[in-house]
Amino acid sequence: MVQSKNVSFAVTLLYTALVAALPHESRTLPPGSSIVNLRIEGATNTIYEAPILSGPRNVTTPSAGTHKCDGTNNGANPSPGNTCTDALDAASKLLKFPFDGTYSTTFDDFFITSIGTSTQTASQFWGLLLNYQFTPVGGCQQQVQRGDDVLWAFDAFSKTHFLKVTPDALVVKKGGSRTVTVRDGLTGGAIEGAVINGVMTDADGKAKLSFLKSGVFEFKATRDDSLRSNALRVVVA
Description:
Blueprint: E1 2-3, H1 7-21, E2 34-41, E3 46-54, E4 57-61, E5 65-69, H2 84-95, E6 99-104, E7 109-115, E8 118-119, E9 126-130, E10 133-134, E11 149-154, E12 161-166, E13 169-172, E14 177-184, E15 195-196, E16 199-200, E17 206-210, E18 215-219, E19 226-227, E20 232-236
Parallel strand pairs: 2-11, 12-19, 13-20
Antiparallel strand pairs: 1-18, 2-3, 4-5, 6-7, 7-8, 9-10, 9-11, 12-14, 14-17, 15-16, 18-20
């Protein structure tokens, strides 16, 4: 459990909400820009989890230099648009965390090697999922649309499940309880044996959570063989 006091997260939400609320004619956004839900799960922590405004751009990494990243890479799409790596780059600039990657001229795309302090090893690599499915192409080739869920996951290829908790937000009275469900985002199947706020899910993936203290809290479901879940954010009043 984490009691939520993340100012950077609040700034991110405010920024994206304000942009979304602007009249179309007052936005200075390049064609193809959109707001997506970005989550970056590092080796031991969540590096970023919030909406992000991004669009087609040039991306620069220490190892590869600067290259275009707009979905037309390697002929993947006919016109420029927002991509998974654009979202990563925008979040990196917003919250000031580093990322690196090499560049393949064959695929006209980056291979992300590190984000934050989580760096690939000989057996652990960064993986990319769009709406809980592995992307068939790289992050500069994979275009995204408004509201898509973009997930960069460290050691993704060793995970048995990619945990997804629903609902992802609750308002509860102090002393109250609510039941949440944990599923595998890849398959939709219920996950037994995941732990969230100290409670283990049953065979149907359900856990009844009790809230005894007032405050704003954030919980994630975990299981040893799985990627930690999206955040469940709870206001207890």
